[in-house]
Amino acid sequence: VVSTLAAIVSDRSVSTNVRTRALLSIGQLKATAALSTVATLASSPGENVILRLDAVRTLGSLGDGGIPTLISLLDEKALANAAVLALSKITGAYFGPDRARWTRYYAEYKKRKQQARP
Prior knowledge:
Oligomer: single chain
Strand content: under 5%
Largest sheet: none
C-alpha cells in the first residue's frame, strides 16, 4: 500500500487532489517507508505550493527522519510556518523559523537520542 501511495505522490500526471489524499494517507499510516518521496516533494520548488505544504505537514507525522528537510525549508517563506509546526510536532520544541537555532537543537537532539539507545 505504501509503495502505491508513494508512487501516486511522485506522479505529476495525477491530479493534485489525489496526490494530496495520498500524502494524507501516508501521514495517517505514519508510513516512514515513504519519507524520501515526501521529502523530495516538499523540497521541489517546481511543484504546486499547496501540495508542498501538505508534504511538509506529512513530514511532521513521519518522525525524526524528516527533520533535516524541514530545517532546510525554514528559508522558504511559503513553507516556513508549516515547517516550524512540523518540527515542533516531532521534537516538542519551538524556535520559530530560526534555522540556526533549529540546526543546533537538532544536533543536540540526535546526541540525546543516540545516548538513550541501549
